[in-house]
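Students often ask why we bother predicting the structure of a whole assembly rather than each chain alone. The short answer is interfaces. A chain on its own may look different once its partners are present, and contacts between molecules only exist in the joint model. In this exercise we take two input lines together and write out one structure for the complete complex. Read the inputs first and try to guess which parts will touch.
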Amino acid sequence: MPVMSAQTDLEALSLTFVTEHAAPIERVWQLWADPRQLERWWGPPEWPASVTAHDFTVGGRVSYHMTGPSGEISAAWMRVTEIEAPGHVRFDEGFSHDDGTDNPEMPAGECDVRFEALDENRTRMTVVFSYASVDDLELVTRMGMIEGFSSAAGQIEAVLAR
Amino acid sequence: MVVRMATMSDGNVDAIFHALADTTRRDIVTRVIAREQSVSSLASEYAMSFAAVQKHVAVLERASLVVKQRRGREQIVHADPATIERARLLLEHFETLWRHRAEAIDRILAEDPEH
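Now the answer. The structure tokens for the assembled complex follow.
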């Protein structure tokens, strides 16, 4: 099971995900640093991501969109604020208008990712998302990207049935 | 599912999360989910005054996490499952997304010939 822990800090409005992967730290870093690899895992099932710009330097921008099962598009961006390969990247994130410009009316947050070599072939990744308000957090979770994925829907039905 | 998600946007989410950001209040919620109880029996569980516990209950009540009813001379507190469910679902969505991402990462890593 790659997810070792998932934690929520309600006061800081942050969510922390810790995973461990059977690969060297440089290899796990490439999953973020290589746009062709990033787009293979970032989008939820049924919402594949396409990375259209990827400048992984301080101030650089990553633009991507995800395409839903009925062809609907959800576009978003990241802006790198700190980077130290292969151990740390921090970025602001938000949603985009259809023309690719920032959409300031949509929620924006911050994401901090740390990579740690546990041994030569084992890497721990710690991802912390933080949001300015619970409303932002709720909007993010309500975006099409999350509504679209069927396995989550299955989970929700299971929770509601309890 | 979209319909269910839409109902989640009702009400004041900030109040829910503020209410749940306190250890005592989370504990009160846990207790009243297990079984409804009076404010005085709740107060006997904590090293704080009846008034302090009553204040915590009031915060939870404003967030619709619990409902307080007068029964005779007692005030009975019980959980509002719909609101608790909503807060939990919100966080579960995010967690589920990350579980999918982590699994996708492992599938990509497993494809590499060198590992």
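Check your guess against this: Chain B touches chain A at residues 1-2, 4-5, 8-9, 13-14, 16-17, 20-21, 85, 88-109, 112, 115 (CB under 8 Å).
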